[in-house]
Specification:
The complex is a heterotrimer of chains A (about 210), B (about 375) and C (about 525). In chain A, about 25% of the residues lie in helices and about 35% in strands. Chain A is of the alpha+beta class and about 210 residues long. Chain A has a five-stranded mixed β-sheet. In chain A, strands 2, 4, 6, 8 and 10 form a five-stranded antiparallel β-sheet that branches. Chain B is built from eleven helices and ten strands. The chains are: A alpha+beta (about 210), B alpha+beta (about 375), C mainly alpha (about 525).
Chain lengths: ~210, ~375, ~525
């Protein structure tokens, strides 16, 4: 131990100077490291923002849109909208669109229903996650009402028709003739939000 | 040094001739869709460019290594920079890259264009099988690996399409633009058929589209292209491309098959019929995890031999299979298998590996009928 | 390589200083950069055999279709562990070991800037890997989701051992961050007077750039696995669509780390190659300044290309096009480096000692790996290549005959300086040729397997893939057993009879501060800084 101190004293001045400028650099670099860790978490809202703006992954479709009062349907063309459902693993539900597909004018508002039946044998909260393809069409499909906006609570054995009130913005590219709106139904038990209402306006219980 | 060099050349020649005799594909398939063929052409163009650049680079290298050996008296020169030549070998590669990027961009744009398809098929990846749904025709089915476990475990000779065969292939018409909607039920999978030039990740919660237009009838095989768990290597894809007439006939017969299946439940099945059906179904659907010996691979895959569920009341045995065990790999087979098949499986496992003796001792039945299954199905569905 | 003259009076060993303590205490508590470098290298060497054994187990299973040895579950654990060990347990510690040994000597510093932190950086690693290996002994499966551990396979569907895996990654990350910090501070603040930026040896430059990469992306990996942990246990849904998250977000975060990570794995190696090629050509490195800028460019561009690992995930066209172009762009600075090495060789005076052999092997085979990388960059082709054995071939060419060969080059090159003993040149040549033959036998056929449609990470395959898989397995055994020759060489060189007195210079064409020191180098060096003119 003594020998180490002796060594250090020999190079005392130099080591001291080095230590000072070390401290500054180390502080800077450590701040950088912490910053990058924070950047990693910032990637989440950043990713969400980019997806919403670009309409990727149906992220834009998860929120209600207000309709411009002067929106006129574009009667010169139609778009075929396919509906599809997927039920996530381990969730025992029947979940099907009541219409397989519809044809719609851009700018025209349409109301469609999805039938859901709780076959899990217990009360359960579920969440439907929308996804729209093709990518170019995703940000133009807007909903004013959708059962996917909130979690949905189902009693054991309960059945319901759940509404989606949507339109496709008239500014959508003329090249797009077909759009698919798909929902995946998940068991939302780990993610139950206590603050929201657990039914959608317009949900018809059967 | 020279001796070493010739030894290497000799070895490489042996290697190359060995590879040639391996008699199997060396290259990407040209394929049967416009996209697969354009991808092949792009791949070959890139390959030739790399070969050309490689010949120059390795040529200069070999030349230097031979000509500038100290042992042959070479004296080192003193240059260590040259702006002109450095600019040259920065600019030329850049231009080559631009030349490659152009056809790549064009092909990619074509891949993204899913307009004007005449048929839409939704493909869902499961652990460890595929589900195909013809949305407009109302046909849906699961497609499982049909290679038996005996072949995998080297107890039976392997047939030609070992690990690349399924019980129900995807049947599609040729010369039709087909839109594929791909998603997943659980983890990320990928639907990949090299001959068709299609690979699309199947991501749970999201749906993505791709397309194909097959120009030649035939059978095209692929595999799952994203690690998805234990049996990732055991969920192949088989696409049968047929003429439009054959496809229409297939659609018609499938619609009728659904009706027949629901009628089968009414028909009484003998114990032998159930056992035979059950054994095949067990091997196809269950043995991967629970093993043909019924010993399972605990703790992930429980043992069925002398298991208290299999040697207990038959209703809970049936319910177990119908509803699965959430949070584990045991899926809810009630969605995938009809009553007759499940009855066969339950009958088979209750009679195998000494379970029949235990059941007899406990006074539990070993015969389970499709009607038994139907009753339990109604009870467990909460209706 | 810059010319430096050393003030000859001051570099001699100062007799007042003590040598190292004896026994275990020395190795546990050392703050000496040479000791820590040795620890890192020994650790990495042990891990090479562990990860290599796993590779051979994998290759045995893949020798024939049908089950050979392993259940699919255990096979997935082997592939996962093999990847984690090789990346985090072999290449990164070995590069850190080289950094520790060489950087202080090459810049004329007595030690690293933060010697005690240095000790801690190393000793975190055995703990991290003990935790990782312990998962193989646990009741449930060990991590079995590939070294890339995508969600939701690793989150919702991951086994219990995943949490130990996460903690283990945290420790490895902490170790790397601390080491990188140390390296940056050392290089910035402890260069000898006169050692200006453009007189730094290429190895030091390449580690400086690598250290910045590490500081930038290891925290992102830490964030990624923390988010995984939160999803698994705290009901968050970063990567779970059910709660509003997205499995693709995982891939973005992971590959934002993952792509710079592969440059971390290779850049220090580039520095080694520059020094070795210039030494054995007896010629200054061609285009030193552009080599420095090319290294920096590779690092910077490496940050913005991560999505080329995700081309088939359903990204929009614009994103795919951008990432394709950016990825292709990396070929330009990499090409500059290859051409500069060639120009160093051209009109040099070349000899073929073992370090040079490995450097030349690297040059050829890394370039081949670079070509397959360029092919992978093209999105439409990547649709066919992704997750096939073509990718496996590519990254093994750039990591085995790339990174690993540079480490072998470095050890052969500097071992005589570190130990004062020359390794056996005959055995070295055997090691080289068997490694090259084994390496190519193993990984060249994998290109064809991938093109023919064989996916990766499968324990069993269709019959048409058999022949090439058998060649791969034979090659793997040749390559694996060739490394035993290396083990023998190292042990003999370190502990065998002395081969006679080695000069300071060791290699005729070597330049740099360390080549003015005695061989073996004293325990403490450059306690008084040399003056560089």
């Amino acid at each position: 131990m003594t020998k180490k101190l002796v060594d250090e004293k020999k190079e005392g001045i130099k080591v001291g100077q080095a230590r000072k400028s070390n401290k500054k650099l180390i502080t800077l670099l450590v701040c950088g490291v912490i910053g990058m860790f924070g950047f990693c978490y910032m990637l989440i809202p950043l990713y969400r923002l980019i997806c919403e703006v670009e309409g990727i992954n149906g992220q834009a479709a998860n929120k209600p849109t207000l309709v411009a009062s002067d929106m006129q349907p574009d009667k010169t063309r139609t778009i075929k909208v396919d509906f599809s459902t997927t039920i996530s693993k381990d969730l025992k539900f029947r979940f099907i669109p009541l219409a397989r597909h519809i044809t719609i004018h851009p700018g025209e508002r349409k109301l469609i229903y999805f039938y859901a039946e709780n076959l899990s044998g217990k009360n359960i909260t579920v969440q439907a996650i929308p996804s729209i393809t093709p990518m170019d069409a995703a940000r133009y499909l807007k909903k004013t009402e959708c059962f996917c906006f909130t979690q949905q609570y189902f009693y054991k054995g309960e059945r319901a028709d759940m509404p989606v009130y949507f339109f496709i913005e008239p500014t959508i590219s003329k090249k797009i003739k077909e759009v698919t709106l798909s929902y995946t139904l998940f068991d939302a038990t780990p993610y139950i939000k206590k603050t929201e209402e657990h039914f959608t306006k317009g949900r018809i219980d059967l | 040094m020279q001796r070493c060099f010739w030894r290497v050349i000799l070895f490489l020649s042996i290697l190359i001739s060995f590879s040639a005799n391996a008699a199997h594909e060396l290259n990407m398939p040209y394929g049967v869709t416009p996209i697969s063929q354009q991808i092949y052409n792009l791949h070959m163009a890139a390959f030739y460019i790399c070969c050309a650049i490689g010949s120059i680079v390795f040529g200069v290298l070999i030349y230097s290594l031979i000509k500038f050996r100290k042992s042959k008296g070479a004296k080192a020169a003193h240059f260590h920079e040259h702006l002109g030549i450095e600019l040259l070998w920065t600019t030329i590669p850049f231009l080559i890259l631009v030349a490659l990027a152009i056809p790549a961009t064009i092909v990619l744009q074509r891949i993204h264009n899913t307009d004007e398809s005449s048929l839409t098929i939704k493909i869902t990846g499961y652990q460890w099988k595929w589900k195909y749904e013809y949305l407009d025709q109302g046909i849906r089915f699961f497609s499982n690996l049909s290679t038996t476990l005996d072949q995998i475990n080297n107890k039976a000779p392997k047939n030609k399409w070992f690990l690349r065969e399924v019980d129900k292939p995807l049947v599609v018409p040729i010369n039709t633009k087909i839109k594929l909607l791909v998603t997943s039920d659980d983890v990320i999978h990928a639907w990949w058929v090299p001959d068709l030039g299609v690979k699309q990740d199947a991501i749970p919660g999201f749906i993505h589209e791709n397309w194909m237009q097959i120009m030649k009838p035939g059978t095209y095989r692929g595999q799952c292209g994203e690690l998805c768990g234990v049996n990732h290597g055991f969920m192949p894809i088989v696409v049968e491309a047929v003429t439009q007439e054959q496809f229409d006939a297939w659609v018609k017969s499938n619609r009728e098959a659904k009706v027949i299946q629901s009628q089968q439940i009414e028909k009484k099945m003998t114990e032998n019929e159930l056992l035979t059906l059950g054994k095949t179904a067990y091997e196809r659907n269950c043995a991967m995890c629970h093993q043909p010996t019924g010993l399972g691979l605990p703790p992930s895959f429980p043992q069925l031999k002398h298991s208290h569920i299999v040697t207990g009341p038959k209703d809970s045995n049936i319910a177990f299979i119908l509803t699965g065990v959430p949070g584990t790999a045991m899926a809810a087979f009630g969605d995938q298998l009809d009553d007759a098949t499940i009855a066969g499986i339950v009958t088979y496992i209750r009679n195998s590996w000494g379970n029949d003796a235990v059941n007899f001792k406990n006074k539990n039945p070993t015969l389970v009928t499709p009607t038994d299954v139907m009753k339990v199905r109604q009870k467990t569905s909460g209706v | 390589m810059s010319e430096t003259t050393v003030d000859k009076h001051h570099h001699e060993h100062d007799d007042h200083h003590h040598g190292p303590e004896a026994g275990l205490k020395r190795w546990l508590f050392t703050t000496n950069h040479k000791d820590i470098g040795t620890l890192y290298l020994i650790f990495s060497f042990i891990m090479l055999f562990v990860g290599g054994a796993m590779a051979l187990i994998i290759r045995i299973e893949l020798f024939e279709p049908g089950k050979v040895l392993l259940d699919p579950e255990y096979f997935n654990q082997m592939t996962t562990m093999h990847g984690l060990i090789m990346v985090f347990g072999v290449i990164m510690p070995a590069m850190a070991g080289l950094a520790n040994w060489l950087i202080p000597m090459q810049i004329g510093a007595p030690d690293m800037a933060l010697p005690r932190l240095n000790n801690w950086s190393f000793w975190l690693l055995p703990f991290a890997f003990s935790m990782l290996f312990s998962t193989l002994l646990m009741k449930g499966p060990a991590p079995d989701f590939g070294w890339t551990f995508y969600a939701p396979l690793s989150t919702t569907y991951g086994p219990a051992s995943t949490d130990f895996f996460i903690f283990s990654i945290h420790m490895m990350g902490a170790s790397s961050i601390m080491a990188a910090l140390n390296i940056v501070v050392t290089i910035f603040n402890m260069r000898a007077p006169g050692m200006t930026w453009f007189k730094l040896p290429m190895f030091v430059w390449s580690w400086l750039v690598t250290a910045f990469l590490l500081l930038a992306v290891m925290p992102v990996l830490a964030g990624c696995v923390t988010m995984m942990l939160m999803d698994r246990h705290f009901h968050t849904s970063f990567f779970n669509a059910a709660g509003g998250g997205d499995p693709l977000l995982f891939q973005h975060v992971f590959w934002f780390f993952g792509h710079p990570e592969v440059y971390i794995l290779i850049l220090p190696g580039f520095g080694v190659i520059s020094e070795v090629i210039s030494t054995f050509s007896r010629k200054r490195l061609f285009g030193y300044v552009s080599m420095v800028y090319a290294t920096i460019m590779i690092a910077i561009v490496g940050f913005v290309v991560w999505m080329h690992h995700m081309f088939t995930t359903g990204a929009p066209l614009a994103a795919q096009l951008y990432f394709m172009y950016a990825t292709m762009l990396v070929a330009v600075p990499t090409g500059i480096k290859v051409f500069n090495w060639l120009a160093t060789l051209f009109k040099g005076s070349i000899t073929f000692e073992t370090p040079m052999l490995f450097a030349l092997g690297f040059l050829v085979m890394f370039t081949m790996g670079g070509f397959s990388g360029l092919m992978l960059a093209l999105v439409p082709s990547d649709y066919q290549y992704r997750d096939s054995y073509f990718v496996v071939a590519h990254f093994h060419y750039v990591l085995v005959s790339g990174s690993l060969f540079t480490i072998l080059t470095a050890v052969y090159f500097w071992l005589p300086k570190w130990t004062g003993r020359m390794y056996s040149e005959t055995l070295g040549q055997w090691h080289f040729w068997l490694s090259v033959i084994g390496m190519n036998l193993t990984f060249l056929p994998m290109h064809f397997l991938g093109l023919a449609g064989m996916p990766r990470r499968i324990p069993d395959y269709a019959l048409q893939f058999t022949d090439f898989n058998q060649i791969c397995t034979i090659g793997a055994f040749i390559f694996g057993f060739a490394q035993l020759i290396f083990l023998y060489i190292i042990v003999k060189a370190c502990f065998g009879k002395s081969t006679g007195h080695l000069s300071n210079q060791v290699w005729e064409g070597a330049h740099g501060l360390e080549w003015g020191l005695p061989s073996p180098v004293p325990y403490h060096t450059f306690e008084t800084a040399p003056v560089i003119k």
